[in-house]
Amino acid sequence: MDYQIIETKERLKADLEAAARGNRALTAAHGCVLVNLMGSPGAGKTSVLLRLVEALGREYAIGVMEADVDSDVDAKTMAAAGVRVIQLHTAGLCHMDADMTARGLAAMGVEGLDLVFLENVGNLVCPAEFEVGADLRMMILSVPEGDDKPLKYPLMFTISDVLLINKTDVMPVFDFDLAKAEARARALNPAVRFVPVSAKTGEGFDAVAALLREAVEKKKVRHEDH
Amino acid sequence: MDYQIIETKERLKADLEAAARGNRALTAAHGCVLVNLMGSPGAGKTSVLLRLVEALGREYAIGVMEADVDSDVDAKTMAAAGVRVIQLHTAGLCHMDADMTARGLAAMGVEGLDLVFLENVGNLVCPAEFEVGADLRMMILSVPEGDDKPLKYPLMFTISDVLLINKTDVMPVFDFDLAKAEARARALNPAVRFVPVSAKTGEGFDAVAALLREAVEKKKVRHEDH
To answer: What are the CA-CA distances from residue A78 to residues A96, A124, B49, B102, B191 (Å)?
Structure first.
């Protein structure tokens, strides 16, 4: 009985690793940066994306893949912001994997895009386990969720390149210690880029835009070298 | 290849259904109500439990199973509140299933308890898919998460008997429409018991305590009938 489960898992794992490599090859061929944006339901993924489109939309051609268990409310919002958008329904699944991401990239088309965001399913656990082939893994922890979350959901904090602390505007009404949150995240991931932001007021988005700009320019240089 | 996956899944499903029946039989034998408490990270599951222990701890013997991917911060908090507590580590898994719940119940012991809470892993997707054999499925949606969550995570709202809207105290600083949240939840689940609460101020907990009292008394009558 057991060996069947293992065999299935290994086959699936190998397939997903191949799909992630395929996604990397595709975005490299087009000099386009893929960002995997993760966080709990309500952490502010869509609002953060709207701010980033506002900050970078004049410099770069941006695409957004909205992954949801159901609904297309986020895709409607993003389409209204004037970027290339596709809605992906996971049909109950709690995360995006590399294969689903490959289908999304193919259906949306990355030709002519500089920056593609995958807005993952709202979930602080499962998406962390699935490498989709992104250049940057960006997670959002929002102030109302609490500064203890790195202790309770360590994997997401460990695998993320960028950690945004969103909703800093409501800091006064919540018992959230920014220094504690940063120390707990750095204990798991010393190199993480830690950026407090407020999608409501716009605070902190210059810094996020700068690090995305850096990633896009670096990938363009590599692309042009070929 | 395919039939192996199906076989594995069906075996697992049958095992979990048997474990859920076993949990129901165990709690029935002890006249004890099992509540599966679910919600996103930071929705306020532990704070809500502390309020319920405060409201019901003099009438009933209460047990709490704290399920976390990692850490034991919640178990420490609950133990300080003077209830029987056990910490369950899911070792990376994003939900509790009936078999893990059975192990928790056995390790904690339900003898002499009237009410047992399973604080599930913080996740608005996966725990909804796993029936653990609970008498009541209680979910928490917190105001900062937004009133659109029933549209985006429909299964959790569909399978819950009780929906608590927590953090009503911060309603003034968030754009959350209580009537919209209720209408969206009822469209999926007309019979859901909808209770706005604030674990910070204590608002609404009389109503939650009343419905838990009702569940305990009903189960005690059934237990004494045997």
So the answer is: 19, 22, 38, 44, 34
